[in-house]
Every structure is written in structure tokens, then in C-alpha cells.
Amino acid sequence: MSRKRIADAACVLGCLALGGLLLRFGDAGWARPGADPALSWRADAVVGAVGSLLVWYRRSSPLFVALLLVPAGAVAGSVTPALAVSVFAVAVRCRARTAIVVALADMLSVIVYFLLQTDPRHPLAIDLVVRGAILAGALGWGLFAGAQRRLVASLRDRAARLEAEQQLRVEQARLTERTRIAREMHDVLAHRLSLVSLHAGALEVRTDASPDEVASAAGVIRSNAHEALGELRAVIGVLRDTSPFRSIEAPQPTLGDVPALIASSGALYECALEGSGPPDATIGRTVYRLIQEALTNARKHAAGTPVQVVVIGAPDTGIRVEVCNPLTASSGVPGSGTGLIGLAERVELVGGRLQHGFEGASFRLTAWLPWTTDHG
To answer: φ and ψ at 308, to 5 degrees?
Structure first.
């Protein structure tokens, strides 16, 4: 049995028990010799029991149950607990004006009940005060519970809407970053293919070229073709923005542009890269964009604080990038988080990993990237 059904059964039993208590001390259960009440105690008990059983349906049809109980309250005193429960149900699930009207109708039924008694046990004022106190408590509690229920429902809807909007922002950030990567790779790929075409055209025209010149041009063609294939593998599956309004961009940055970027920001820089040659252009661009976004976030959320950038790596261990800045009083300024989402997408596309978070009084961003070269 569900919790709601258990609560319904307990509510019915409670109404029956309280109705029996009111029957014992009410007009039907007590009458002077020769004075007949409007209803015998048996009839009053039946009406009270039926009214208590109607409480079972207060969730599905609160207003209908309350309207059925109003005339019952005019002839039977044992139905008072059921009246209170029905007023509570209406206050929870209906408008406040409707609940107030139902409560007033129940109060008017007290006057009808009093007029039907030939020898009432209590004055009308006492009946009005007792039932009025019960109904007022049920009405106030129901209005409060209804307002709280609507507030919780609205907060849940808002949380669900915010979660959906955040998911859309995350997906948009990923798509934007993929588009940006594809655009960068497209430009680089076009450059490499133009070099291949240029040197192939030179070989076609220079029929008198020496063997050394032919070998040099062939090496350039082979190298650029190999690099173009690597760029093409990375860009496959990522859509490129073909909007005619896209602005013309500067040449894509490389790992060699990182020192100038850091110098312009005033950050502390430590670089220890081993190996005979630098990693390929895709990894270099990823390192540059990662440091660029990290410096932007540090300038936005911790302006004026020293930022430390460390880039270490080797062909057999990969590249490790760390950006750390201390927290300030303004570090709690909220952001959309899409920049870090875009970075994570960019790093994952090249097979790396990204971590970020608070460490004591500092914010640290750490990334690991594989070391791949232009020749494999």
C-alpha cells in the first residue's frame, strides 16, 4: 500500500473516531427526557460515518466532497471532523476564495443545525465558536500547505528549466569550440595544400631542375602532404562555419606564440620541453588556446593577481600545462562556465585530459596532451 493510501485510511479512521466522540457529547447522544433531537444518535452516526468515508476521495474531488458534506453538517454533529478535512483539501488544491466560501457555508450549516434542535444542549454561540475554530484551523493550515506546495512545484519547474538551459549552453559551447577548431584546421590545411600545389607546379615548370632541387621540392611536398593528412583526420566530422559574415582571422597561433601571449599578460612563465623538435601544429594550437583561455579567466575573476604558467613535457611523457592563480575577494563572480567546457572539448579531441578546481587559496587548471609530431 502506498504512503498516500495509508494517509487516506488514517484520515478516515481519525474522522470516525472524532465523530464518535462528538456524537457522544452532542445533541444526538444527549437529550433531556421528552425532547427528541433532529436526528437520532443512530442516524447521526450513519451520516457521520458516510461523511468520514467521503474523505477518502478528497484528493481527486475535493470541492465535490466538500459540497456533499455541507448539507450533512446541517443535520449531524458527528460529521464535523469530515467537514474540517474537506475544507483543508479544498484550501490545498483550489483557490483561496473557493476555500473561504466552503468554510463559510459550513459555518452557516451550524445555524441550521441549531434551529433544527428542539432542545439544544449548547447555546448557538458555543457551537459557532467550536466549529468555527476547527474550520478556521483547517482553512489556515490548508492555505499554507497549498502555497508551499505551489512554491515547491514552481521551484522544481525552475530547476528543471535551468538544468535544461545549462545543458543547452554546454552543448552550444562544445559545438562552438568544435566549429572554431574546424575553422582553424581548415585554414592550416588550405595553407599546406597550397604549398603542395606550389612546389608541384614548380617541378612541372622546371624541367631542367637539378636532382638536388627535385629532391628538396619532393621532400617539401611529402612533408606538407603528410601534415595535411594529419590535419584532415582531425577535422573530419566537425562542421565548419560557412557564414558569409565570418570575419577574416589572423594566422593560427602555434606553440612558438605562447611566450608572446604570456608576456602581454604579465604572467610568470616556465617552459621545459624536451625532444629534437616541437610537437605538431594541432597540439601547439591547443596549448596556446588553453593558456589563452586560462589567462582570460584569471583576468576576469582574479584581476591584478600573479598568474603562473608551466609547460613541461617530452615525446615519451606528453605535455603538461598548468595555470595557477590565487583567489581574491572578487573571485566568486559567477560565470557561464562555457569557456572551460570548450577547453575540455578541445583537449579531448586531441586525446588529452583537463582538470580544474580550487586548491586551498588558489585556482589551478591542469591539462595533459599527447606529444605527436608532424611526421607521425
So the answer is: -110, 130
